[in-house]
Amino acid sequence: MNPRAMTLAAMLMTAPIACNPPASAPTTPPASQQKPEADAALTDTKPTPGAEAPPANDAVIYKDDKGRTLTMADLQDAQELADDRWDQNIAPEAMSSYQAGQLAGRERRFDDAITHFLDASLAAPGWPKPIYGAAWTYLFQGDVEKSLEAYEAVDKIAPRGYIATKAAIDTLKREQDAKLPPASYLRFELQLAKRDKDGRIVFLKEILAESPNFPVAWKELSTLLDDPDESLAAIEKGLTFQPDDDTRGHLLVNKAIHLMRLDRRDEAIEILGKLALDRKSTNATEFMAKVTLMRLHGGTFRQNTPQTP
């Protein structure tokens, strides 16, 4: 039997399950969600202006009702969650097949793209990137069932999140259950990829007026709105519609940032601390929560010290 004729789920039945950090998005699918959008907390690791002097590394920053704690050192080590390790030690033949899939996708040779992506997955079964590429390609071809199967295969390899996998699964299932119109996710990704900020806001408001049961769209809208009250309202709307774990994490981190700006510091710390300690949080959520807490307390990432050979 030709391995490519097997379903993606069968191909990855024995693939190693790993809780690795999220990676950068491949170039084939749109990358509207390739990195967290939790305000400047994620892109600027300098201390927040006005924050107090950083506590000592062993200082307890947060303690939950179960007695679990977060120290400053825990927060400073958050960068380990953001490291892109998925592409390390990939077999050359797998990388070559993946790149061929990308090229075929750009040239709209979609069947060839899928063949190359599946070849890459066979050569590197624990690597989610080619299956993620296949998932988007299937979706672009209109095959929602195979696309969903591929996204679920990615989720098996990376259960703590990989790019937009969890949002894609959630949205496609809503389409299948007639909770969202057909092709909502495809339309969402394509429109966000080709519009500027103002155009994205207009588009998102239009689709949410038609279909409010669309959590990831509320998340995207909340990150684009300049008015803090409108942004916070979009966050609350998104949380109302039972978002996937990754979207929920993004929404809650951004909510905490808004609360900090409203001088509701204790509420913000409680949200961030719970997310950082919750093992159900995706890697992206844990990273965002820890970085935001760290900046709130005036901290910065620790510099990695090169090891002596």
Describe this structure in words.
By secondary structure, this protein is an all-alpha fold. It has two domains: 31-86 and 179-303, Serine Threonine Protein Phosphatase 5, Tetratricopeptide repeat, CATH 1.25.40; 87-157, Tetratricopeptide repeat domain (Serine Threonine Protein Phosphatase 5, Tetratricopeptide repeat, Alpha Horseshoe). The protein is built from 15 helices and two strands. It has helices at residues 8-11, 72-76, 79-82, 92-106, 110-123, 129-140, 144-157, 165-176, 184-194, 197-210, 215-224, 228-240, 245-261, 265-277, 283-296; strands at 60-63, 69-71. It has a two-stranded antiparallel ribbon. Helix 6 packs antiparallel against helix 7 and helix 7 (144-157) packs antiparallel against helix 8. The longest helix is centred in the last third of the chain and has 17 residues, at 245-261. The radius of gyration is 20 Å and the shape is globular. The model is unreliable at 1-28, 31-37, 39-47 and 303-309 (pLDDT under 50).
